[in-house]
Amino acid sequence: MDDFAEPAHRCGHGTVDNRVRRSISPQHGARRYRPPGPLDVTRARPGRKNARVDSRYGSITDVAGVRVGHAHRRRGGWRTGTTVVVVPGGAVPGVSVRGGGPGTRETDALRPETLVQTIHAVCLSGGSAYGLAAADGVARWLEARGLGVPVSPPGGDADPAWIVPVVPAAVIFDLGRGGDFTRRPTAEFGELAARRAKGGRVDVGSVGAGIGAVAGGLQGGVGTASTSIALDDVTLTIGSLAVVNAAGSVVDLETGLPFEPGSRRGPGRLRAPTAGERRALVAASEALRPPPLNTTIGVIATSAALTKAEACKLADIAHDGIARAVRPSHTQFDGDTVFSLATGQHELTDVVSGFRRSGGREAALHQVLTAAATCFALACTDALLAATLMGGPPAYRDLCPSVLR
Q: Rounded to whole angstroms, how far apart are CA atoms 246 and 291?
């Protein structure tokens, strides 16, 4: 599976090595493992191929027009990957960077006062600063489909081939977690993940950009969530996707449950772990100190029509979700970054004037922002719950199986 001996194969724009496509694990990389005993994680091995873990809290693809794709490798010294969020119809973008050690691309282009008003993809990747190369592959894939900022020269008819895809990107630090420091995502990872992007079900857990993630000494991963808001005659959707690779913890060691209280309510609510499971969780957390270079990154999307300034505020508020789910967050050793996408399918109501009046646009926007914080917190929690053993630190579901039963 990690053999690089096969010839290159044409696909879309440019070339994608067939050898790379084979070496990068399929999108179904989320894996399930049942330990031989409820507390015995010393004998645990990485889960079987084709086993899947579903999100408990909805999906970012519940926002119409949003697609997600993954690509990763985990053998021969590799444990890293890339996740791409694609919006073929375009979306108004925003961004908020809160961590002290970010690795990003094209964030300045998303500031409210800058020229670009629409983007078509966001790239999230492992590999630290080296992994930003994955965005080149996403740009290549978008160019082949005519998606980007038109830059035709003045005079004459517009040439559809003259486009520049703007691909914002952020990375997590997972260098060396597969055993080889030089194994990190390339442009081929980004192109393959973009090509695999689809709506509907999103694979979560130890997949894509989250396969090499660590959260508070436990296996991290990719999580997703969604919620909806009824406003007069329309229902807005908010969706989030998070890659949790935090220096802080997502779990309250006193209770053995995630910090985010929303995970303990509703039909999919979590059960309390047994006393033995709590002891195992504490022991694992004390034995496995997290590396100092970590990050939580992700995307918050909504069907609402927002300006760039409002989209940036949406990304800013989503960081509150990180602070609720990950403690501590936004440290000097984290590169916490959230991108936002507003697809514009639903206009916010504006039937009355006044900042605090029900039915006004400002009040509707406030509801969207409030929901965004909760939604992103649940995506962070989902990443922890869905993560499976990848040959590194233990996974929460192996230490506390009764919580998810």
A: 9
Q: Which domain holds residue 104?
A: 56-68+89-126+168-182+202-404
Within-domain flag for 100:
yes
Which SS3 state, helix, strand or coil, does residue 18 take?
A: helix
Q: Is residue 120 part of a domain?
A: yes
Tell me what pLDDT residue 367 has: 92
Domain count, the chain: 1
Mean pLDDT of 301-307: 97
Q: Distance (Å, rounded) from C-alpha 212 to C-alpha 33? A: 17
CA pseudo-torsion sign 36, 42, 47, 53: positive
Closest CA to 372 of 328, 326, 310, 327: 310
Q: If you count DSSP H runs as helices and E runs as strands, how many of each does the chain have, helices first?
A: 7, 17
What local confidence, expressed as pLDDT, does residue 109 receive?
Answer: 96
Task: Give CA–CA dist 252/264, Å, rounded.
Answer: 13
**Residue 47 maps to a domain:** no
Mean pLDDT is highest, among 68-72, 256-260, 354-358, 359-363, for: 68-72
Per DSSP, 106 falls in state S
Lowest average pLDDT, out of 59-63, 155-159, 222-226, 366-370, goes to 155-159
Q: State the pTM of this model.
A: 0.85
Q: How far apart are CA 265 and CA 96, in angstroms?
A: 29
Q: Phi first, then psi: what are they for 14, rounded to 5°?
A: 75, -165
In a domain, 49, yes or no: no
Q: What is the mean pLDDT of residues 68-90?
A: 96
CATH number for the domain that contains residue 327: 3.60.70.12
